[in-house]
Design brief:
Layout lengths: L2 E10 L2 E10 L8 E9 L2 H8 L15 E9 L9 E5 L14 E4 L4 E3 L6 H23 L9 E3 L5 H12 L4 E5 L5 H7 L1 E6 L15 E6 L3 H9 L1 E9 L13 H5 L3 E4 L7 H14 L2 H6 L1 E5 L3 H9 L6 E5 L2
Parallel strand pairs: 8-9, 8-11, 9-10, 11-12, 12-13, 14-15
Antiparallel strand pairs: 1-2, 3-4, 3-6, 3-15, 4-5, 5-7
Helix pairs in contact: 1-9, 2-3, 2-7
């Protein structure tokens, strides 16, 4: 198959647009492993890339898709051979390097990890960068000394991809999880994942005080802006907040008060360029603690043809949990 289907993003005199297209294998970018992509997923960042609502894509034309799973077709990398099942998260794919919304991808082997034995390719994309990021956030809290006996943990953006998997992982680890969401109709879903309490995101999304009542020992925040500022202001003494998203905004209108008066730690979670060892640690956590039944419950499957519609929906907050993209 010298030609393959893909989503293509262009930016020129006619504007910014995403279309379904075809590429020739000779157009693939440099790399020492060529993969037949079987599955991808739709993250919030993918939504921004496809719609052009943030400058995620920095090279044109671009094949978007920051994640993929598939089977190695050819490799000159010492760790991979044809037939190996692999997963990719980040590394600039879908931004500066052709990504996962295509039947083929060529990347550096150093960017790949073996598909964990606990998961199928589809399940790995039900996790995707969102779930992998959630695992990194949970690990960061643990390494900061946060344990369930310190008090509850808050998860913002709870019904989204990062939030839903973070809830499942934290509940499995024994935390009492408080879930913040604007979707009251998802209460049963969040409770099923492991949330003990659900609060309205409106409690956190508007300007607040520099310090508030101590309500949680730790938090995973996928929202940013005023929400993150309020999360910090209500974190208990020597607590920690893992920040990994900007659904509300890139700004952080806070003060130094949580840091210098309560000793709160703000832990930045950057998943894109994480070293291989950290990636393997995150996937090991997911393989050990993520219930396959819950993963199935929080996932839906679409075809490549529906990615652009779903990209718009995820930005509007209308996508629950995770989206698997079957590439055929």
């Amino acid at each position: 198959m010298s030609r393959f289907k893909a989503i293509r993003i262009d930016k020129d005199a006619s504007g910014y647009r995403a279309t379904y297209s075809e590429f020739d294998e000779s157009e693939l970018m440099d790399g020492d492993v060529t993969v037949r992509v079987t599955h991808s997923t739709v993250n919030y960042k993918d939504g921004l890339a496809i719609t052009g609502k943030a400058p995620v894509v920095r090279r044109f034309p671009m094949i978007p898709g920051i994640d993929f799973a598939g089977v190695v077709e050819s490799s000159s990398h010492p760790e991979f051979k044809p037939g190996d099942e692999v997963v990719l998260n980040g590394w600039g794919c879908g931004e500066t390097h052709f990504g996962g919304y295509a039947q083929k991808a060529r990347v550096k082997g150093d960017w790949l990890v073996p598909l964990p034995k606990a998961f199928s390719a589809a399940q790995s994309m039900a996790i995707g960068t969102a779930g992998y990021t959630a695992a990194l956030a949970v690990l960061a809290l643990e390494k900061q000394g946060m344990t369930p006996d310190r008090g509850p943990v808050l998860v913002t953006g709870a019904a989204g991809g990062v939030g839903s998997i973070a809830i499942a992982l934290l509940a499995k680890a024994g935390w009492r999880v408080i879930a913040s969401t604007g979707r009251k109709d998802e209460a049963d879903f969040l409770t099923y994942l492991g949330a003990s309490e659900i609060i309205d995101r409106a409690e956190l999304s508007t300007p607040g005080k520099p310090l508030g009542k101590e309500r949680w020992a730790a938090a995973v925040d996928a929202v940013g802006s005023h929400t993150l500022a309020n999360v910090l202001a209500q974190t208990a003494y020597e607590g920690a907040v893992a920040a990994c998203g900007n659904a509300q905004g890139m700004d952080l209108p806070t003060t130094v008060a949580p840091f210098i008066l309560r000793g709160v730690c703000l832990l930045g979670i950057g998943s894109v360029m994480k070293p291989r060892a950290a990636r393997l640690e995150a996937w090991d956590l997911l393989a050990r603690d993520l219930d396959p039944d819950k993963l199935a419950e929080l996932s839906q499957t679409i075809g490549l043809y529906k990615v652009m519609q779903t990209a718009a929906e995820i930005l509007e907050g209308r996508v629950r949990g995770r989206v698997i993209v079957e590439i055929d």
